[in-house]
Every structure is written in C-alpha cells, then in structure tokens.
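Query structure, 252 tokens:
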C-alpha cells in the first residue's frame, strides 16, 4: 500500500494539537501549523451597555473560552447559547452550560451561520438582543462575516458585536517555514477550517504559487477561497475527524 499522505492542520491552538493527535491515532501523518494566532485583547472586554442579552452566539471554541475567562456580567446567566458547530458546543459544555441551553446546527451539518440560523431564527422576537461573541482583528475591531447579524436585524432583533479575543497572522519559525514549503510542493495536504487561514498563508508566502498544492476544506466557502488562492487540488470534507481522515486515505 502507498504511504499515507501527510496533512498540515491549520486550525488555531489548542484545536490544532488536538486534531493532529487524533488524526495520527487514525494513521494520518499529521502535523500542526496554526495559521491563526489567538491572542487576548489589548485591554479588558468591553461589555455592552444597556439591556442584557436574550441570546449569546459564539463563533468558535476560542470565543467561548475567552468570554468565560473574562467573567461576564451576571445578567447573562441562564441565556440560551448558540454554537456554530460541535467544537463550539463542546467548549460551552466544558464551561458549564447545560446541553439543554445550547443550540447548534444538525449533527449532519453543514456547520455554518446559515444552518445555525435555520435552527434558531424562531427565537428572535422584535427587540431581542443577541450578543455575537467573536474575535477581533489586530486593532481590536470585530472581524468576520456579518451575515448572521443581518438576519437578526432583519427579524427585528438587535445584533451586538462583542469581541473577546484577537485573531492574528502568526509568526513562523524555521520549522514552520519548512512545513509551508512541504505544502507548497504538494508533498503534504493542507487542512483548512477557515478562509482566514487561507488568506494568512498567502500573506506569509506572498510570492508562492500554489498550483502544485493540495487542500482539504471543511466547507465549500473555504474550498472556494483555496481555489481562488491558486490551489491546484481542493476537496471538501465534513468538519469531523473521520471524514477528514477518509478524505486523505481515499481521495476522490
């Protein structure tokens, strides 16, 4: 049998290490190269003024961890929590949120804002305040898609952006640069779970051509970002370990 292809896991830490270890246990030669650095805000979290929220929406497991680490106001206790996928829901459970108060897309995916909204839109009454707990850019400004905010406001709700951490382009060491070269040459497959990771990789290697590179993306939108960046081979796999492992072992 041919050797198992190597896989570069680009998720932020600690997820990158968790995924790498779990994929290795499934026989995949995986290595971690986080392409998004998660960092605290430069100052304290700016808790929104005014009426308390009726719902809390978390864009990622990192959002959950930084939100609760910042000791949110007591007024949010008991709020229903929205999660974009199972990793975020798991982080909420680890933070002590009961499963009965967590809403997320169906288990068969996709895991995105559209699928989440299809499940929770009936919870947004006119005037309902929803805090969108998310990351910020290097300057501390809320960063990411605003599609869900528009849906909430279109339903008469109030979408409040709440950055609780920063998402930065990482600085690569020598080992990281060698890993990039391995993926650039097509000797390893890139695993992307964020379009931002694709953009950060291109920023780290601005002169690179990616026509020989292969990628597995966990959402069609991310796959399109990889194609737009010039990746020669791109596949889509569900964002769970078994599906990703199968996509590497049995490429289409």
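Result returned for the query:
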């Amino acid at each position: 049998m041919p050797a198992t292809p190597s896989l570069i896991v680009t998720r932020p830490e600690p997820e990158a290490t968790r995924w790498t270890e779990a994929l290795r246990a499934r026989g995949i030669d995986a290595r971690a190269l986080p392409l998004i650095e998660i960092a605290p805000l430069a100052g304290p979290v700016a808790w929104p003024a005014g009426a308390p929220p009726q719902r809390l929406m978390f864009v990622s497991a990192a959002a959950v961890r930084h939100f609760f680490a910042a000791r949110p106001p007591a007024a949010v206790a008991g709020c229903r929590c929205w999660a974009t996928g199972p990793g975020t829901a798991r982080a909420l459970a680890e933070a002590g949120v009961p499963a009965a108060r967590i809403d997320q897309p169906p288990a068969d995916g996709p895991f995105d804002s559209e699928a989440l909204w299809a499940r929770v839109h009936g919870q947004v009454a006119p005037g309902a305040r929803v805090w969108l707990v998310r990351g910020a850019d290097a300057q501390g400004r809320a960063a990411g898609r605003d599609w869900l905010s528009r849906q909430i406001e279109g339903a008469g709700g109030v979408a409040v952006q709440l950055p609780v951490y920063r998402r930065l382009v990482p600085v690569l060491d020598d080992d990281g640069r060698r890993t990039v070269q391995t993926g650039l040459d097509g000797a390893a497959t890139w695993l992307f779970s964020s379009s931002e990771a694709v953009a950060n990789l291109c920023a780290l290697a601005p002169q690179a051509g990616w026509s020989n590179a292969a990628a597995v993306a966990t959402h069609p939108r991310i796959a399109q970002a990889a194609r737009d960046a010039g990746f020669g081979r791109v596949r889509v796999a569900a964002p769970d370990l078994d599906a990703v492992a199968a996509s590497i072992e049995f490429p289409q």
